[in-house]
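Sequence in, structure out.
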Amino acid sequence: MYRGDRDQDTICAVSTPHGVGGISVIRVSGPKTLSIVSKISPFLPEHPESHKVYFGALEATENAEGIDEVLVTYFKHGRSFTGEEVIEISCHGSPVICQSILQQLVTLGARPADRGEFTFRAFMNGKLDLVQAESVLSLIESQSQQAARLALRQLKGSVSAKLEDIENDMTWILAHAEAGIDFSTEGIKVVENDIVLSRLNKIEAGLEELVGTFKVGRLIKDGFRVVLTGLPNVGKSSLLNLFLEDERAIVTDIPGTTRDVIHGDTSFKGVKFTFLDTAGLRESVSDLVEKIGIQKSREATGESDVVFFVYDVEQGISAAELAILDGLDPKNTYILANKTDRLASVPGVNTVADALKNSKFFQKIGDLDSFLKRRVFFISALDKKARAQVLEELVGEFTDLQVENTVLISNSRHLENLSRALENTRRSKSVVEDGLGEEFLALEFKEALIAIHETLGKRFDDQIMDRVFKEFCIGK
């Protein structure tokens, strides 16, 4: 993607979002950066100091006409984000001005940067490993406080450090396995099997811990996808408006008002939530549009992280609703007993318990009392306090967001590689336990080390690079 002589080019791009703003930043990186920028920056000294900002007016090379008053920051080779000589030009945020400056830079020998090329160069120059490079994009795209914190921890090397510890143990095992192969004809045992197994157990535990964090890491990164489901007219649309704190859905007393999946984003305690209001589920439907809406509802439910099953507490849970519940997974289902404002007194949880005991849903739960205490909420869509009541429980149950130092993975590529490394490690343990010899251990365990190297970017090909950097914007 960025291979060959292009790596030696001097590149330029606007690194701030496109459009009108107070300030825009143009980044230039490469071996000819200073010589190119100096030709339009007469105020720059011949030998500028690294990390120092210079103020002055840019001038067009063809007629010395002023382009803009700017701030120019110089970063010496080896002391910049990319590892190359870099200059950042802070100009007024007009697209016309930015384009004029870029035209001057290209005329003088720079070329427009490709997607993610600045971060790619930082990776190639050893300023970042591949995990950290990916965290740059995650940090830029973070849509919640917790997602930003997670990406920043990864950028600082939390995952990388853990993987490097695992890599060191893997290298030790492979080195001794290779030595064992060399001395096998002489009957010399380089290291005992119980020592190798001890190291393999440590590696397996480390990989299991990382793989096990993916669900939480992904939820923090991408947020919760929560679908509201249930029969028509139980208040799903009203609850959607409550959770989004916005009149997003139309609310009427007419059953079947919602015919498509309506969604909206919000945040709570630094965590992003995407709520989806779906068409009410009912069997006897003649309207084709409503039928399609119900089908979309079922699809949205299957793709969600969390299901909020809503029923009208005034009416109680019907047989039809129990049938819907039976098709849901108790592990990610919450029951919202809505419309409590219509009752003189809220019924106890035994009302729900008695109904659930007769359903297959309860048979999947196991501990009904615990489920009722944590997963059933008697609320009213008219009560604004209900929002915090439900979301507080959801955040607390599904994520351990208070552990700031926890190492989490949130990238599907990392999950794929680490799952492969874990599987190879387990097979390597079987090889040692079965006494098959160092050559079989080396053959199997080398694949685990390759998976770690691919995660960190110590081993890569063009497909991996394309997969990682194609998601970046130009200028990043």
